[in-house]
Each structure stands twice: as structure tokens, then as C-alpha cells.
Amino acid sequence: xxxxxxxxxxxxxxxxxxxxxxxxxxxxxxxxxxxxxxxxxxxxxxxxxxxxxxxxxxxxxxxxxxxxxxxxxxxxxxxxxxxxxxxxxxxxxxxxxxxxxxxxxxxxxxxxxxxxxxxxxxxxxxxxxxxxxxxxxxxxxxxxxxxxxxxxxxxxxxxxxxxxxxxxxxxxxxxxxxxxxxxxxxxxxxxxxxxxxxxxxxxxxxxxxxxxxxxxxxxxxxxxxxxxxxxxxxxxxxxxxxxxxxxxxxxxxxxxxxxxxxxxxxxxxxxxxxxxxxxxxxxxx
Length: 285
Description:
The chain is mostly beta strands. It folds into two domains: 3-169, Nucleoside Triphosphate Pyrophosphohydrolase, CATH 3.90.79.10; 183-284, Inorganic pyrophosphatase (Inorganic Pyrophosphatase, Alpha-Beta Complex). 14% of the residues lie in helices and 38% in strands. It has helices at residues 73-85, 146-154, 164-169, 265-276, and strands spanning 3-7, 13-19, 30-38, 44-49, 60-61, 63-66, 94-102, 107-108, 111-112, 115-123, 138-144, 183-190, 207-215, 221-227, 235-246, 253-257, 281-284. It has a five-stranded mixed beta barrel with strand order 12-13-14-16-15. Strands 6-3-10-7 form a four-stranded mixed sheet. The two termini are 40 Å apart. The model has no long low-confidence stretch (mean pLDDT 95).
């Protein structure tokens, strides 16, 4: 019986446990990992799911799975790699690319995710040892170029929820040093507690607005998430303490602190997940 820890949206352990296959209670999440492995040629290790897998049999994917009760994210990533493709990777060879919180509104084939997904990238140039895998979940694995992986995706042979691979792996690292630390003022057009103008079911848990006289990548006003109050606002002045960079959109979101103090990454990710769960992105501080 596989058990998971349940977390709040702020990545706090709730003390509750979850049995795989049972419905996750609303407001809680389990931790999952996707693990991409890259060699010095820029190729990625892609594995083929075995024919006996209940979902996506014989489709290709990266290593991944649920983090077990008591494990950390990196522990789960290393275990999944050993189980699925037989490699013993070192923690220092990996880095966390980004984290995505997926709530009940994010579905694939009617399945709700309710998870906090950590995406890892490991560098590895050794031999492949699928025979050392400790499970029979994988039928084959091989190194592939980005173009080969794209062809798999276009032919619907790659698990479709891995579509973020292309916008993430091919993205340049942005530089926000000229933005973070600025004092800005602006207008709140979607105050805390109000509904999205086009999606009435989406209620804003924090104030959301735009910076006066600053245009974003989409040509409209620069949007901001505003932290530091639990009351609806009409306008704001505060300090940009972080930037949420959307990999799959042209507009970034600035994170503004009304009192100028730093905000924990877990707090930011949790509070913006109501909207950002529909995008892939990374927080820069």
C-alpha cells in the first residue's frame, strides 16, 4: 500500500496521510516529481512505459512519480530514477527547475491532479543500466534530442502532460535585476474577493492589479500580485520582491510587497496558484 504525505498549498505538511488511489480531500496536495536527465550532448533520457501500465502504456516520458510518505522531493526523485531506469544519481548532480501547484481545476482526461509538482534536471554522462531497475514499469529507455522528443509529442507518443518540456528547456534564463527592488505604484482592478471578469468561478484571494505607466510583454499594463494586506484595495504602492515568469506566455507577473519586506517563496506560490496553476512558470527573487 503506497502512502503519501498531504501538504497545504504553502507546502506545509498537514500531518495527514493519503493512500494512493483514494480521493485527495479539497485543500490538500501530494508531492510529485518529474525528473529529466541530460547528457553532455544535450540529449535527454526518455523512457517507454511498459505495456502493463494502467495508464499510457507504451508511451514515452521522463522519469517521475509520487513522493512517498517521509521522503523529501530530492529523495523521491532519486528513488524514482533507480526504480524506473536503474541509475544511481547523486543529489548534487540535480537542480530544481520549477514547481507547479495543480489544484482540482487542473484536469487531464477528467483526472484531477491535486499535487505540488517539482520538476528536476540532472546531468549524467554514464552508461544506461535499465537491467538494474527495481521495478518493471519501463520497457525501454534511450537518449533523444529535443527534435526527436518533439516528434514523439507531435505523433502523440509522448505523455501529453509533458508538453511544458519545450518551453522550459529551450528558454533563456531571464534577468530581473533591474526590476526586483523597485518601488512601484498602480491600480487594483481585481480586488481581493472579486471574481475574474471572464471566469466567474475564479475568486481572487489576494489583490491583483497593474503598475501605472508600465507595459508588459503583451502590450498591456504590467500585472502584479499584491501582498501585505487582507483587505480589498483600489490602489497600491509597494516594492517588487519577485517576478513570476511564465514559460508559456509572453507576460510575467510582478510580486509586490506593500511593506517592502521579503515574502517566502512557498507563500507566493501558494497564493498565486489559483490562477497560475493554468500556466507553467518559475519564481525569481
